[in-house]
Every structure is written in C-alpha cells, then in structure tokens.
Amino acid sequence: MAVKKAATKAPKAKKTTRPEIANSIKTGKFKTNYHDRGKGYPVVFLHGSGPGVTAYANWNKVFPLMENEYRVIAPDLVGFGYTERVKGQTYSMRVWVQQTVELFDALGIEKANLVGNSFGGALALSMAIEHPERVNKLVLMGAMGVSFPITYGLDQVWGYTPSPENMAKLLNIFTYNHKFATPELAESRYQGSIQPGFQESFSSMFPEPRQNGVEDMADNEAYIRDIQHETLIIHGREDRVIPLDNSYELLDLIPNAELHVFGKCGHWTQIEHTQEFVDQLKLFFQR
C-alpha cells in the first residue's frame, strides 16, 4: 500500500521537564505524543489502559534495553497521556486502530513488530486482523482481546477515582512484588491521573457495566484464528487484572503462537521482570 513519505525521524520535541512528553506528530484530527528512540527495525509498543498511564510510564524501563538494536516507538493512545484531546472525541478500538495506522503512515513505517500490553494487546490483535500487512511479529503481554468475566482488579482499574490512596491500592493490584509499587511511582501515576482532561477522558471510556468494555475488546475473537503472524504471548502467573486463562485461550486460537509465563509476577511483566522480558522479545524478534 502507498505510504506517505516521511523523514526517518520527526524533529525532536522541545525540551520539557516531563519525560512523558516527547515528539508530536499529526495523526488524523489530533497530534499524537510519541517516543521514538534508537535505530534498526521498528518495534511499536502499545500501552495498557490504567489511570494516569502514558507510553513512558508503561515502557520507560524497556527503552534503554531495546534502543541499541531496534527503533523503539511508543505512542500515547488518544484519550491517554499527552496526545491531543479534541472536542467531541469518542473512544473505541476503531479509533485506536486508525490512530496507529496513521502514526505508521506519518512516520513512513510500512511494517513493524507490535508489542501490546493488556488493552494494548487487544489493539495489537485488531491491527493484525484488520491491517495484517503492517504487522511483522506480534507480542501480546497480559492481553485482552477475548471474552472473560471482568476481574475485581480490572473493575478497580477502570472504576478508579483520583486519590493517592486509590492509586496506591491499584499499584498493589498490578504487582506481585509490592517493592515495585513504590510511593514515588504511586505519586507519579496519581499526578498523571489528575492532569487537566485526563480523568474526564478515562472515565468516559469504560462506564458501568464494565463487562461491556471487556466484550467490546473481544469483538474480533472470531477472526483471531485467522492471524498468521508469529506471536509471542507473555503473562504473569499472579496477574490479578487480566486472567492467565486469557493467554492460554489465545495460545489455542492463534496458529503460530507460543506462550511464556513468568512466575511470581503480576500484570506488569515489563516492570517486575524487565531484563527477562526484553530477553524474550529479542530472542523472538531475532529468530
């Protein structure tokens, strides 16, 4: 397909005191905030749907371990982080797929490896189904995308109301080893959740009954068997947000899939087992 011509990298954003704010590029009706680091084959990282989440918060520990061998791209999906919010914007998987395609086009990327975390895993699945020619290899980490009874953890995540106490509670749900749920991280994520417009967009995405949000992300389930991409599925055994059974189901559905389960690990494999997570990615991509 025709891809818009673009420089290898967009101009660097102005310096900011917030590392979450990186580059900005036009995608459809809004500008997407995205990180673009390193050189080599592009790997696009798609974040999850927690309150206060940004691409940086989700993936910053991974960046320095990947950027010496790959071009690492991580956008704030619209409605999250520092991507522009425009009046009247609605949020749906179709909107996030379109944003991802338009980001590829704007950056001149014909095809990339995709790494999707949780909600981002459902988006990665949708990309592989709707735009298979844009996806090389697929990594699904603690992924949504199939139907399951909403967990207590996910209900708490989507039903979050801003307070330092509620954010600290969520970090304990996300992690198996609570040493990673530091007061500094809780404060950072809490501050991220109360930026102007952030909670308003977040709370509009997954209203009650929140089971509907699970089902909305599973509406491609009938097509998952048709995914032909090599797929690495990763899950934390003690994940209390997205059940491990999801990954076993995806393993059964996707013909060219393999599964790696991390023991003593919650929903944030990339945070609790950063080096081992990156090692798995590199082995998979280089094979």
Strand residues, percent: 15-25%
Strand elements, count? 8
Mean pLDDT: 94
Going across the major beta sheet, what is the strand order?
1-2-4-3-5-6-7-8
Number of helices: 13
Order of helices and strands: EEEHHEHEHEHHHHHHEHEHH
Query: What are the low-pLDDT stretches, counting only 5+ consecutive residues below 50?
Result: 1-15
Helix content: 25-40%
Biggest β-sheet description = 8 strands, mixed
Shape: globular
Structural summary, described in words:
The chain contains 13 helices and 8 strands. It has 287 residues and is α/β, with parallel strands linked by helices. An 8-stranded mixed β-sheet has the order 1-2-4-3-5-6-7-8, sandwiched between helices. Helix 6 packs across helix 7.
Topology diagram in text:
Elements: E1 23-27, E2 30-37, E3 41-46, H1 55-59, H2 63-66, E4 70-75, H3 93-106, E5 112-117, H4 119-130, E6 135-141, H5 152-158, H6 164-174, H7 183-193, H8 198-205, H9 211-216, H10 221-224, E7 231-236, H11 244-253, E8 257-262, H12 269-272, H13 274-286
Parallel strand pairs: 3-4, 3-5, 5-6, 6-7, 7-8
Antiparallel strand pairs: 1-2, 2-4
Helix pairs in contact: 3-4, 6-7
